[in-house]
Design the sequence.
């Protein structure tokens, strides 16, 4: 068979396997036996081993299960399911405690509930009148999938609780996971225990979930009507009494020293445990303190995850790819033979830049040690030179960007050195590689925030020629999209909606969304404050008088050079002009004569139906200002749900007006 014939054969088999994956994982209706399926998978893997060039992104080796079914109902969490911030060493822990003391304005001896951080997936169980009513996955933290029936198949999850003191309404949260030895039996189907748990939990057919031995360990509550206990450890004991499983290794410790000692001893025995874990969770034991400390935007102030040290593994570099980022930086990435590092299959490792490859002399074919620490992208630590083949050649870093342009290394006037990063000169949307990254930036949360148009979708639309420039977003061919795999009437409707909603955008966000190098959120705000409206901005980019920005405090030569460079390209200017006619770019009313002129506001607590950022911008749009501390300069304290008592008390003592969000809205009427 020649290369082409082999490729054809391989692709046909990939297609066949994908079909059976869908039938098995998504539709829960396999039409071939497990043995036949395994044979098919093995044939493919053998082909890949023999003819390495066949491997691509569709490789069944890289795929795990099947995407979660779209058919689950969405369920909004009453309290968001947040994540935990991480600590890696003593310093991080001391800092964590220091922040607590600062927040409480008091030093004290803290007791901690210490719990192993099982590496599974979290789930929320709402019990009403002592019966399990809703079981929900974490989802994006705000909205999850309603998977009650699937969760009900897990033997550790009680369906009904008889105890008298069990609250009438409570949401219990915990981790769904698979034990290591159970995973061993099904390891051909999933890449790691975590994927096995998540894949099986989201099967459309609960009978499929039941086939896989899942476990549940409870560890916290989301919300509760009437649960007033003093400590997390009391709560854990209650959970046990009520019939939930809790971790046998939970502990109470009373100082950072004790935490460090326990962490060390527990890390040493982590591999002897029958479940995967990636660290320990420390929670301030006092529930009253917990509620006073509350949450930052994404994690509780009263808890932290103390991670175990980085995991590493040896593998082989298959090839070195050059990726181009939004600002034109060429980043080399090692594609390595997939290797399981601490429960995660790693097949890419960043090589940072040209100098790093030179320094470590990393070559294609080398055996390397890869490290993965927390959520950081895995990277190569060292090369095992003893395993290097004599014929191996030094890696020559390309001088051209994959788009064909010559790359440059910039000279840094301050350090008087050339940058270690090689770049494709940022010509805006001209380099294909940069353009696609710019599109991803354009739709991102802080920019136009188009839900339903994630990075993967952008890539797909790009490949299908549906999307090449930002303005294409507003002329998408929905009749084509609806035909694509994974799309349906509802998802197209959602996409249309979020695109429509994104049209109304502030000047600041709009400038940021262009993805001009060195113009991040802060600088975009400075420029927008200065320009006030889009007409002024367009006049300026046409006249290219960017030097006038030197008057703006915070904007320097670097930013001006970058703006000049971006707009030296006519097509970038045209993109801005075209976008300005498609979007509704709101003017910045600053120091204007809005109704809140001269008044200052501060927010505390969760505001109903409006984010803090939005509330702030509402005040600013009406010429008011916002402060971050209660002081005598403050005019109004706007109080939402679960407001911090301390702030309210301070405001009261200074005679500051305390109002609700509704009252603020009335002021605006
Ligand atoms: S408490 C507000 N306790 O870690 C966060 N989480 O990074 C409250 N996890 O999504 C979570 N063991 O999946 C908590 N004993 C434990 C945990 C635990 C594992 C996971 C959980 C959560 C993630 C947070």
Sequence:
């Amino acid at each position: 068979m020649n290369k082409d014939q082999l490729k054809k054969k391989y692709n046909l088999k990939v297609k066949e396997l994908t079909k059976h994956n869908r039938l098995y994982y998504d539709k829960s209706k396999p039409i071939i036996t497990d043995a036949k399926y395994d044979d098919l998978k093995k044939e493919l893997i053998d082909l890949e081993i023999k003819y390495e060039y066949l491997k691509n992104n569709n490789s069944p080796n890289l795929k795990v299960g099947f995407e979660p079914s779209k058919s689950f109902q969405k369920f909004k969490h009453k309290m968001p399911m947040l994540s935990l911030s991480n600590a890696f060493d003593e310093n991080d822990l001391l800092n964590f405690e220091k922040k607590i003391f600062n927040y409480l304005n008091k030093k004290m001896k803290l007791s901690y509930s210490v719990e192993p951080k099982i590496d599974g997936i979290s789930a929320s169980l709402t019990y009403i009148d002592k019966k399990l009513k809703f079981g929900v996955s974490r989802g994006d933290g705000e909205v999850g999938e309603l998977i009650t029936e699937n969760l009900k198949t897990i033997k550790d999850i009680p369906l009904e609780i008889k105890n008298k003191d069990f609250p009438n309404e409570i949401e219990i949260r915990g981790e769904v996971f698979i034990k290591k030895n159970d995973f061993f039996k099904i390891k051909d189907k999933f890449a790691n225990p975590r994927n096995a748990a998540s894949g099986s939990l989201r099967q459309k057919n609960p009978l499929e979930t039941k086939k896989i031995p899942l476990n549940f360990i409870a560890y916290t509550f989301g919300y509760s009507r009437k649960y007033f206990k003093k400590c997390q450890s009391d709560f854990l004991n209650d959970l046990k009494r009520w019939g939930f499983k809790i971790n046998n290794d939970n502990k109470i410790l009373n100082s950072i020293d004790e935490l460090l000692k326990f962490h060390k001893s527990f890390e040493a025995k982590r591999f002897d445990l029958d479940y995967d874990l990636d660290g320990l969770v420390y929670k301030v034991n006092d529930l009253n303190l917990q509620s006073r400390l509350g949450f930052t935007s994404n994690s509780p102030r009263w808890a932290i995850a103390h991670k175990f040290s980085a995991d590493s593994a040896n593998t082989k570099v298959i090839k070195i790819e050059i990726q181009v980022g939004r600002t034109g930086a060429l980043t080399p990435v090692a594609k390595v033979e997939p290797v399981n590092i601490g429960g995660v299959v790693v097949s890419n490792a960043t090589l940072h830049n040209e100098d790093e490859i030179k320094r470590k002399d990393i070559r294609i074919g080398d055996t390397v040690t890869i490290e993965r620490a927390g959520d950081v992208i895995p990277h190569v630590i060292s090369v095992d030179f003893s395993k290097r083949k004599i014929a191996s050649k030094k890696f020559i870093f390309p001088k051209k960007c994959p788009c064909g342009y010559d790359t440059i290394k910039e000279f840094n006037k301050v350090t008087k050195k050339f940058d270690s990063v090689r770049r494709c000169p940022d010509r805006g949307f001209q380099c294909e590689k940069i353009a696609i990254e710019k599109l991803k930036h354009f739709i991102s949360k802080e920019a136009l925030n188009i839900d339903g148009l994630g990075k993967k979708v952008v890539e797909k639309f790009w490949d299908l020629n549906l999307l090449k420039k930002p303005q294409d977003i507003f002329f998408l061919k929905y009749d084509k999209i609806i035909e694509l795999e994974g799309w349906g009437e509802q998802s197209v409707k959602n996409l249309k909606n979020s695109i429509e909603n994104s049209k109304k955008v502030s000047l600041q966000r709009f400038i940021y969304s262009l993805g001009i190098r060195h113009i991040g959120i802060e600088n975009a705000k400075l420029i927008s404050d200065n320009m006030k409206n889009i007409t002024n901005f367009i006049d300026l980019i046409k006249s290219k008088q960017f030097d006038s920005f030197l008057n703006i405090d915070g904007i320097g030569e670097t930013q001006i050079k970058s703006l000049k460079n971006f707009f030296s390209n006519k097509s970038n200017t045209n993109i801005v002009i075209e976008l300005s006619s498609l979007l509704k770019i709101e003017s910045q009313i600053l120091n204007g004569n809005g109704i809140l002129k001269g008044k200052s506001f501060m927010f505390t607590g969760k505001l109903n139906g409006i984010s803090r950022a939005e509330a702030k911008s509402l005040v600013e749009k009406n010429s008011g200002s916002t402060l971050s501390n209660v002081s005598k300069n403050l005019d109004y304290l706007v109080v939402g749900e679960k407001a911090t008592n301390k702030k309210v008390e301070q405001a009261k003592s200074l005679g500051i007006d305390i109002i609700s969000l509704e009252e603020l809205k009335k002021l605006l009427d």
User: Anything to note?
Assistant: The CA atoms of residues 518 and 559 lie 6 Å apart. The chain is about 35% helix and 20% strand. Residues 82-84, 115, 117-118, 122, 175, 219-220, 281, 300, 305 surround 2-(butylsulfanyl)adenosine (CB under 6 Å).
